[in-house]
Protein backbone atom coordinates (compact mmCIF):
# COMPACT_ATOMS: atom_id res chain seq x y z
CA UNK A 1 0.00 0.00 0.00
CA UNK A 2 1.35 3.38 -0.93
CA UNK A 3 2.65 5.49 1.91
CA UNK A 4 0.41 8.43 2.66
CA UNK A 5 1.21 11.78 4.06
CA UNK A 6 -1.65 14.25 3.87
CA UNK A 7 -1.77 17.23 6.17
CA UNK A 8 -5.27 18.34 7.10
CA UNK A 9 -5.99 21.16 9.50
CA UNK A 10 -9.65 21.91 9.14
CA UNK A 11 -12.67 23.22 10.89
CA UNK A 12 -15.27 23.65 8.17
CA UNK A 13 -15.53 24.02 4.50
CA UNK A 14 -14.17 26.91 2.60
CA UNK A 15 -10.55 26.56 1.65
CA UNK A 16 -10.02 23.34 -0.36
CA UNK A 17 -9.43 23.89 -4.06
CA UNK A 18 -9.15 21.82 -7.19
CA UNK A 19 -8.32 22.88 -10.70
CA UNK A 20 -8.93 21.53 -14.17
CA UNK A 21 -9.69 18.04 -15.35
CA UNK A 22 -7.39 15.13 -14.87
CA UNK A 23 -6.20 12.36 -12.65
CA UNK A 24 -5.91 12.60 -8.93
CA UNK A 25 -2.18 12.04 -9.32
CA UNK A 26 -1.50 15.23 -11.31
CA UNK A 27 -0.62 17.65 -8.48
CA UNK A 28 1.20 17.60 -5.19
CA UNK A 29 0.90 20.20 -2.47
CA UNK A 30 0.11 20.50 1.18
CA UNK A 31 -3.03 22.22 2.38
CA UNK A 32 -3.74 23.91 5.67
CA UNK A 33 -7.21 25.05 6.55
CA UNK A 34 -8.31 27.34 9.31
CA UNK A 35 -11.90 28.52 9.44
CA UNK A 36 -14.11 30.30 11.96
CA UNK A 37 -17.61 29.20 10.99
CA UNK A 38 -19.22 25.78 11.39
CA UNK A 39 -22.21 25.10 9.15
CA UNK A 40 -24.84 22.39 9.56
CA UNK A 41 -27.42 21.18 7.06
CA UNK A 42 -30.33 19.65 8.95
CA UNK A 43 -33.28 17.60 7.74
CA UNK A 44 -36.27 17.42 10.09
CA UNK A 45 -38.89 14.73 9.41
CA UNK A 46 -41.90 13.19 11.11
CA UNK A 47 -42.48 9.51 11.79
CA UNK A 48 -43.61 8.92 8.20
CA UNK A 49 -40.60 10.60 6.65
CA UNK A 50 -42.42 13.81 5.71
CA UNK A 51 -40.42 17.01 5.97
CA UNK A 52 -41.24 19.45 8.76
CA UNK A 53 -41.17 23.08 7.68
CA UNK A 54 -41.70 26.41 9.40
CA UNK A 55 -39.24 25.94 12.26
CA UNK A 56 -37.33 28.92 13.69
CA UNK A 57 -33.74 29.32 14.94
CA UNK A 58 -34.88 29.08 18.55
CA UNK A 59 -36.36 25.64 17.83
CA UNK A 60 -32.83 24.22 17.50
CA UNK A 61 -30.28 23.54 20.22
CA UNK A 62 -26.65 23.02 19.17
CA UNK A 63 -23.81 21.79 21.36
CA UNK A 64 -20.20 21.06 20.46
CA UNK A 65 -18.55 18.64 22.87
CA UNK A 66 -21.50 19.47 25.19
CA UNK A 67 -20.66 23.19 24.99
CA UNK A 68 -23.76 25.22 24.03
CA UNK A 69 -23.41 27.17 20.79
CA UNK A 70 -25.32 30.19 19.52
CA UNK A 71 -26.76 30.12 16.01
CA UNK A 72 -25.17 32.81 13.82
CA UNK A 73 -27.04 32.29 10.55
CA UNK A 74 -30.27 30.52 9.67
CA UNK A 75 -31.74 29.37 6.36
CA UNK A 76 -34.76 27.22 5.54
CA UNK A 77 -34.94 25.45 2.20
CA UNK A 78 -34.31 27.84 -0.68
CA UNK A 79 -34.95 31.01 1.32
CA UNK A 80 -32.12 33.58 1.64
CA UNK A 81 -29.94 33.05 4.74
CA UNK A 82 -30.45 35.35 7.72
CA UNK A 83 -27.68 36.70 9.92
CA UNK A 84 -28.55 36.41 13.61
CA UNK A 85 -25.34 37.64 15.29
CA UNK A 86 -22.48 39.89 14.17
CA UNK A 87 -19.82 39.11 16.75
CA UNK A 88 -18.33 35.93 18.10
CA UNK A 89 -19.92 34.34 21.18
CA UNK A 90 -16.81 35.12 23.21
CA UNK A 91 -17.46 38.82 22.68
CA UNK A 92 -14.39 39.49 20.55
CA UNK A 93 -14.32 40.84 17.04
CA UNK A 94 -14.46 38.16 14.39
CA UNK A 95 -11.45 37.91 12.09
CA UNK A 96 -11.96 38.61 8.43
CA UNK A 97 -10.86 35.91 6.03
CA UNK A 98 -9.29 36.69 2.72
CA UNK A 99 -8.98 34.69 -0.44
CA UNK A 100 -11.38 33.05 -2.82
CA UNK A 101 -14.20 31.26 -1.08
CA UNK A 102 -13.65 33.01 2.25
CA UNK A 103 -16.45 34.33 4.41
CA UNK A 104 -16.56 38.05 5.11
CA UNK A 105 -17.29 38.67 8.77
CA UNK A 106 -18.82 41.81 10.26
CA UNK A 107 -16.25 43.76 12.24
CA UNK A 108 -17.05 46.46 14.82
CA UNK A 109 -15.56 49.89 15.27
CA UNK A 110 -14.47 51.15 18.69
CA UNK A 111 -17.93 52.65 19.10
CA UNK A 112 -19.51 49.31 18.37
CA UNK A 113 -20.90 50.28 14.96
CA UNK A 114 -20.52 47.85 12.07
CA UNK A 115 -17.65 48.71 9.76
CA UNK A 116 -19.36 46.96 6.87
CA UNK A 117 -22.36 44.74 6.41
CA UNK A 118 -21.39 41.90 4.08
CA UNK A 119 -23.74 39.83 2.02
CA UNK A 120 -24.22 36.22 3.04
CA UNK A 121 -23.97 33.39 0.54
CA UNK A 122 -26.65 33.04 -2.10
CA UNK A 123 -29.84 31.16 -1.34
CA UNK A 124 -30.10 27.58 -2.55
CA UNK A 125 -27.48 24.88 -2.90
CA UNK A 126 -24.41 24.30 -5.03
CA UNK A 127 -24.69 20.76 -6.40
CA UNK A 128 -21.89 18.64 -7.86
CA UNK A 129 -22.98 15.57 -9.83
CA UNK A 130 -20.34 12.82 -10.00
CA UNK A 131 -21.25 10.43 -12.82
CA UNK A 132 -19.77 6.93 -13.10
CA UNK A 133 -18.57 6.53 -16.69
CA UNK A 134 -16.46 3.43 -16.01
CA UNK A 135 -16.88 0.09 -17.74
CA UNK A 136 -19.53 -0.77 -15.13
CA UNK A 137 -21.83 1.64 -16.94
CA UNK A 138 -21.76 0.27 -20.50
CA UNK A 139 -25.08 -1.53 -20.36
CA UNK A 140 -27.25 1.35 -19.15
CA UNK A 141 -25.21 4.38 -20.12
CA UNK A 142 -27.92 6.19 -22.13
CA UNK A 143 -30.55 5.59 -19.44
CA UNK A 144 -28.19 7.01 -16.83
CA UNK A 145 -27.61 10.11 -18.95
CA UNK A 146 -31.38 10.62 -19.23
CA UNK A 147 -31.85 10.32 -15.45
CA UNK A 148 -29.11 12.85 -14.75
CA UNK A 149 -30.42 15.27 -17.38
CA UNK A 150 -33.91 15.12 -15.86
CA UNK A 151 -32.43 15.74 -12.43
CA UNK A 152 -30.56 18.84 -13.63
CA UNK A 153 -33.70 20.24 -15.26
CA UNK A 154 -35.68 19.73 -12.05
CA UNK A 155 -33.25 21.49 -9.70
CA UNK A 156 -35.33 24.48 -8.67
CA UNK A 157 -33.80 26.67 -5.99
CA UNK A 158 -30.28 25.41 -6.70
CA UNK A 159 -27.78 28.23 -7.23
CA UNK A 160 -25.32 26.35 -9.41
CA UNK A 161 -24.66 22.84 -10.68
CA UNK A 162 -21.49 21.10 -11.87
CA UNK A 163 -21.13 17.83 -13.75
CA UNK A 164 -18.06 15.67 -13.17
CA UNK A 165 -17.50 12.18 -14.53
CA UNK A 166 -15.05 9.50 -13.52
CA UNK A 167 -13.60 6.20 -14.58
CA UNK A 168 -9.92 5.78 -13.73
CA UNK A 169 -9.52 9.58 -13.74
CA UNK A 170 -11.77 12.50 -12.83
CA UNK A 171 -13.09 14.72 -15.60
CA UNK A 172 -14.61 18.09 -14.77
CA UNK A 173 -17.03 18.00 -17.69
CA UNK A 174 -18.98 21.13 -16.76
CA UNK A 175 -17.70 23.52 -14.11
CA UNK A 176 -20.01 24.92 -11.47
CA UNK A 177 -22.48 27.16 -13.30
CA UNK A 178 -25.96 28.63 -13.07
CA UNK A 179 -26.42 27.81 -16.78
CA UNK A 180 -28.40 24.56 -16.89
CA UNK A 181 -27.87 24.32 -20.66
CA UNK A 182 -24.12 24.05 -20.17
CA UNK A 183 -24.53 21.27 -17.64
CA UNK A 184 -26.98 19.40 -19.88
CA UNK A 185 -24.59 19.69 -22.79
CA UNK A 186 -21.93 18.17 -20.58
CA UNK A 187 -24.16 15.17 -19.83
CA UNK A 188 -24.45 14.38 -23.54
CA UNK A 189 -20.69 14.73 -24.02
CA UNK A 190 -19.79 12.05 -21.47
CA UNK A 191 -18.41 8.74 -22.75
CA UNK A 192 -17.89 5.41 -21.01
CA UNK A 193 -14.34 4.61 -19.91
CA UNK A 194 -12.40 1.89 -18.08
CA UNK A 195 -11.82 1.09 -14.39
CA UNK A 196 -13.63 2.90 -11.57
CA UNK A 197 -11.58 5.08 -9.19
CA UNK A 198 -14.60 6.40 -7.29
CA UNK A 199 -12.89 7.39 -4.04
CA UNK A 200 -9.99 9.17 -5.77
CA UNK A 201 -12.49 11.16 -7.82
CA UNK A 202 -14.83 11.82 -4.94
CA UNK A 203 -11.95 13.18 -2.86
CA UNK A 204 -11.18 15.77 -5.54
CA UNK A 205 -14.86 16.64 -5.88
CA UNK A 206 -15.16 17.16 -2.13
CA UNK A 207 -12.16 19.50 -2.27
CA UNK A 208 -13.81 21.54 -5.01
CA UNK A 209 -17.09 21.75 -3.10
CA UNK A 210 -15.45 22.48 0.24
CA UNK A 211 -14.14 25.91 -0.74
CA UNK A 212 -17.70 27.16 -1.24
CA UNK A 213 -19.81 28.83 1.42
CA UNK A 214 -23.46 28.02 1.92
CA UNK A 215 -25.24 24.75 1.25
CA UNK A 216 -23.27 22.32 -0.92
CA UNK A 217 -23.85 18.73 -1.92
CA UNK A 218 -22.35 15.99 -4.06
CA UNK A 219 -24.66 13.55 -5.82
CA UNK A 220 -22.76 10.39 -6.76
CA UNK A 221 -24.21 8.13 -9.44
CA UNK A 222 -22.30 4.84 -9.32
CA UNK A 223 -23.02 1.64 -11.19
CA UNK A 224 -20.50 -0.51 -9.40
CA UNK A 225 -17.80 -0.80 -6.73
CA UNK A 226 -14.46 1.00 -6.72
CA UNK A 227 -11.63 -1.05 -8.25
CA UNK A 228 -8.88 1.50 -8.91
CA UNK A 229 -8.56 4.04 -6.05
CA UNK A 230 -5.56 4.57 -3.81
CA UNK A 231 -7.48 6.65 -1.29
CA UNK A 232 -9.46 4.79 1.40
CA UNK A 233 -13.14 5.73 1.56
CA UNK A 234 -12.84 6.55 5.27
CA UNK A 235 -10.56 9.49 4.45
CA UNK A 236 -13.00 10.81 1.86
CA UNK A 237 -15.96 10.48 4.22
CA UNK A 238 -14.20 12.28 7.06
CA UNK A 239 -13.08 15.13 4.81
CA UNK A 240 -16.62 15.59 3.51
CA UNK A 241 -18.01 15.40 7.03
CA UNK A 242 -15.51 17.89 8.41
CA UNK A 243 -16.05 20.37 5.57
CA UNK A 244 -19.84 20.36 5.73
CA UNK A 245 -20.33 18.74 2.32
CA UNK A 246 -23.38 16.48 1.98
CA UNK A 247 -22.92 13.28 -0.03
CA UNK A 248 -25.85 11.49 -1.65
CA UNK A 249 -25.12 8.08 -3.19
CA UNK A 250 -27.22 6.53 -5.94
CA UNK A 251 -26.10 3.05 -6.91
CA UNK A 252 -27.48 0.08 -8.74
CA UNK A 253 -28.08 -3.53 -7.87
CA UNK A 254 -24.56 -4.37 -9.07
CA UNK A 255 -22.97 -2.35 -6.24
CA UNK A 256 -25.56 -3.56 -3.75
CA UNK A 257 -24.52 -7.15 -4.45
CA UNK A 258 -21.14 -6.36 -2.87
CA UNK A 259 -21.59 -5.98 0.92
CA UNK A 260 -18.42 -3.91 1.33
CA UNK A 261 -19.52 -1.32 -1.23
CA UNK A 262 -23.00 -1.22 0.25
CA UNK A 263 -21.66 -0.55 3.75
CA UNK A 264 -19.26 2.13 2.51
CA UNK A 265 -21.93 3.95 0.50
CA UNK A 266 -24.39 3.89 3.39
CA UNK A 267 -21.87 5.11 5.95
CA UNK A 268 -20.43 7.82 3.70
CA UNK A 269 -23.85 9.31 3.07
CA UNK A 270 -25.00 8.97 6.68
CA UNK A 271 -22.04 10.70 8.35
CA UNK A 272 -22.32 13.68 5.98
CA UNK A 273 -26.08 14.10 6.49
CA UNK A 274 -27.05 12.62 3.13
CA UNK A 275 -28.73 9.43 1.97
CA UNK A 276 -27.84 6.28 0.02
CA UNK A 277 -30.15 4.79 -2.60
CA UNK A 278 -29.84 1.34 -4.19
CA UNK A 279 -31.90 1.14 -7.36
CA UNK A 280 -33.11 -2.03 -9.03
CA UNK A 281 -34.29 -0.26 -12.17
CA UNK A 282 -33.84 2.99 -14.08
CA UNK A 283 -37.25 4.04 -12.76
CA UNK A 284 -35.91 3.66 -9.22
CA UNK A 285 -32.96 5.85 -10.13
CA UNK A 286 -35.26 8.64 -11.32
CA UNK A 287 -37.15 8.38 -8.03
CA UNK A 288 -33.87 8.59 -6.12
CA UNK A 289 -32.92 11.78 -7.95
CA UNK A 290 -36.37 13.22 -7.16
CA UNK A 291 -35.91 12.35 -3.48
CA UNK A 292 -32.55 14.14 -3.39
CA UNK A 293 -34.06 17.21 -5.04
CA UNK A 294 -36.79 17.31 -2.38
CA UNK A 295 -34.27 16.81 0.41
CA UNK A 296 -32.16 19.77 -0.72
CA UNK A 297 -35.27 21.94 -0.91
CA UNK A 298 -36.28 21.18 2.69
CA UNK A 299 -32.98 21.40 4.58
CA UNK A 300 -32.43 23.88 7.37
CA UNK A 301 -28.95 25.42 7.26
CA UNK A 302 -27.57 26.76 10.54
CA UNK A 303 -24.10 28.01 11.36
CA UNK A 304 -22.25 29.02 14.50
CA UNK A 305 -18.91 30.38 15.70
CA UNK A 306 -17.52 27.77 18.11
CA UNK A 307 -17.04 28.69 21.75
CA UNK A 308 -13.51 28.19 23.12
CA UNK A 309 -12.84 24.48 23.21
CA UNK A 310 -9.60 22.80 24.36
CA UNK A 311 -10.31 19.69 22.29
CA UNK A 312 -7.84 19.52 19.38
CA UNK A 313 -9.22 16.33 17.87
CA UNK A 314 -12.67 15.16 16.86
CA UNK A 315 -15.41 17.51 18.05
CA UNK A 316 -18.87 16.03 18.49
CA UNK A 317 -21.85 18.10 17.39
CA UNK A 318 -25.29 17.42 18.85
CA UNK A 319 -28.41 19.03 17.41
CA UNK A 320 -31.74 18.76 19.21
CA UNK A 321 -35.19 20.25 18.84
CA UNK A 322 -36.45 22.42 21.68
CA UNK A 323 -39.90 22.00 23.17
CA UNK A 324 -42.22 19.08 23.93
CA UNK A 325 -44.20 19.42 20.73
CA UNK A 326 -41.07 18.92 18.60
CA UNK A 327 -39.68 15.81 20.29
CA UNK A 328 -41.69 13.54 18.00
CA UNK A 329 -39.65 14.66 14.99
CA UNK A 330 -36.36 13.22 13.73
CA UNK A 331 -33.13 15.05 12.84
CA UNK A 332 -30.55 14.07 10.21
CA UNK A 333 -27.26 15.97 10.02
CA UNK A 334 -23.53 15.40 10.45
CA UNK A 335 -22.39 14.70 13.99
CA UNK A 336 -18.98 16.34 14.15
CA UNK A 337 -15.74 17.43 12.52
CA UNK A 338 -12.02 17.00 13.06
CA UNK A 339 -9.92 19.98 14.06
CA UNK A 340 -6.62 18.34 14.95
CA UNK A 341 -3.81 18.18 12.42
CA UNK A 342 -3.89 14.70 10.97
CA UNK A 343 -1.52 12.50 9.02
CA UNK A 344 -2.88 10.29 6.28
CA UNK A 345 -1.38 8.28 3.44
CA UNK A 346 -0.86 8.12 -0.31
CA UNK A 347 2.20 9.47 -1.94
CA UNK A 348 0.60 8.57 -5.24
CA UNK A 349 -2.50 10.68 -4.56
CA UNK A 350 -1.52 14.03 -3.03
CA UNK A 351 -4.14 16.69 -2.52
CA UNK A 352 -3.90 19.39 -5.19
CA UNK A 353 -4.43 22.99 -4.18
CA UNK A 354 -2.97 26.50 -4.10
CA UNK A 355 -1.55 28.39 -1.16
CA UNK A 356 -3.12 27.89 2.25
CA UNK A 357 -5.95 30.14 3.36
CA UNK A 358 -5.64 31.37 6.92
CA UNK A 359 -8.14 33.06 9.20
Automatic annotation (TrEMBL):
Keyword Ligase: no
One Pfam family named in its UniProt record: VWA
Signal peptide: 1-18
Domain of life (superkingdom): Bacteria
Domain VWFA: 126-296
Cited InterPro entries: VWF_A, VWFA-rel_acidobac-type, vWFA_dom_sf
Assigned keywords, A-Z: Signal
NCBIfam families for the chain: acidobact_VWFA
Official protein name in the record: VWFA-related protein
Organism of this sequence: Tunturiibacter lichenicola
Taxonomic classification: Bacteria, Pseudomonadati, Acidobacteriota, Terriglobia, Terriglobales
Amino acid sequence: MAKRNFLFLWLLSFPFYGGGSGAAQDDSSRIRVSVVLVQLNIAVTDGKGNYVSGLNPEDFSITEDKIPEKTATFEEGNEPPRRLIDVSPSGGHLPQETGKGAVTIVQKSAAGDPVKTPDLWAAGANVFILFDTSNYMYRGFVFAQDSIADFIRSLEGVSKVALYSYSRDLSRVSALTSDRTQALRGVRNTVAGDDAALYNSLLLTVKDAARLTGKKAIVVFSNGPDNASLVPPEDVAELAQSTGTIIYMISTQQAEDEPVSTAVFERMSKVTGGKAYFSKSWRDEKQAFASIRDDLAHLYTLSYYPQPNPNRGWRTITVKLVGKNLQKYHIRTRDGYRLLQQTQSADNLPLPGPDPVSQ
